[in-house]
């Protein structure tokens, strides 16, 4: 099972919980510090949780992540597409760059 958006919040909690039930879970994060933090937390809890880097806005990153996940599991049987971001504030004060970032992350290409 591959879960996107596991740096924090619901994705992180879901990955850790499902790993406690014995499921083979691959959690994705965008940043190296989040990757190490989640690995450390899983290791301290005695969980077999694989944490890989993947930016769902980058097709190359997604392809590399899926290849790595396939090598780790022999094939994925489920996807929890949890990754998401939000920009806060009135639309007229939100930059075009922030809107594009939000749409590319939440809607994917």
Please provide a brief summary of the model.
The chain has helices spanning 9-20, 32-44, 59-73, 96-106, and strands spanning 2-3, 25-29, 49-53, 79-80. The chain is α/β, with parallel strands linked by helices.
Description:
With 109 residues, the protein is an alpha/beta fold. The protein has helices at residues 9-20, 32-44, 59-73, 96-106; strands at 2-3, 25-29, 49-53, 79-80. It has a four-stranded parallel sheet, with helices on both faces. It is globular, with a radius of gyration of 15 Å. The mean pLDDT is 91.
Distinctive features:
109 residues; 4 helices; alpha/beta
Task: Lay out the secondary structure.
Blueprint: E1 2-3, H1 9-20, E2 25-29, H2 32-44, E3 49-53, H3 59-73, E4 79-80, H4 96-106
Parallel strand pairs: 1-2, 1-4, 2-3
Low-confidence stretches: none
Order of helical and strand elements: EHEHEHEH
Radius of gyration of CA atoms, rounded to a whole number: 15 Å
Report strand %.
Answer: 5-15%
Q: Overall mean pLDDT score?
A: 91
Strand order across the biggest sheet? 3-2-1-4
Number of strands: 4
* N-end to C-end Cα span: 22 Å
- The rough form would be described as globular
Number of contiguous helices: 4
Main beta-sheet strand count, sense and barrel state: 4 strands, parallel
